[in-house]
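Hi R.,

As promised on Friday, here is the backbone we talked about, encoded as structure tokens. Could you run it through your design pipeline when you get a chance and send me back a sequence?
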């Protein structure tokens, strides 16, 4: 598994299981010769055609995040990806979570067994929700931001 992140996150990405880490501040991973079976795009900062080029012929792009500042948010990018998928071999689609009790139980079991390593950037109390949202909106969270309700 290859992880792509900034310099400050290289060791954290290695610690959660990446075999190889590419620092995007030093190198454009879409310009490398490697081809991938699956790309999880959590940021949306590369053109869809860049991803098409580095996907294997039957590869998949899963869009998890989207472009900021657009009135329809990540859906515009996802729509472009779905349309492009009709004309190429690779599949491009958007991931939408529909959490269920069973999914949460599975995640809890994976964390307990060590198969999944959660990365928590910061914890806030319920009275600090505005501060928590501000931290996430600043775009520098290194993992999840947790709001504790007690």
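Update: got your reply. Pasting your designed sequence below so it's all in one thread:
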């Amino acid at each position: 598994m290859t992880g792509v992140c900034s310099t400050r996150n290289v060791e954290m990405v290695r610690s959660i299981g990446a075999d190889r880490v590419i620092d995007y501040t030093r190198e454009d991973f879409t310009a490398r010769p490697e081809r991938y079976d699956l790309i999880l795009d959590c940021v949306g900062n590369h053109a869809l055609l860049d991803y098409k080029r580095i996907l294997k012929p039957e590869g998949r792009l899963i869009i998890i995040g989207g472009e900021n500042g657009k009135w329809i948010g990540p859906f515009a990018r996802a729509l472009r990806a779905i349309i492009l998928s009709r004309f190429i071999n690779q599949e491009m689609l958007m991931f939408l979570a529909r959490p269920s009790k069973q999914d949460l139980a599975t995640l809890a079991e994976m964390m307990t067994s060590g198969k999944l390593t959660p990365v928590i950037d910061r914890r806030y109390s319920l009275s600090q929700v505005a501060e928590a949202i501000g931290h996430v909106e600043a775009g520098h969270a290194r993992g999840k931001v947790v709001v504790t309700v007690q």
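One thing I noticed while checking it: The chain has a mean pLDDT of 87.

Thanks again,
M.
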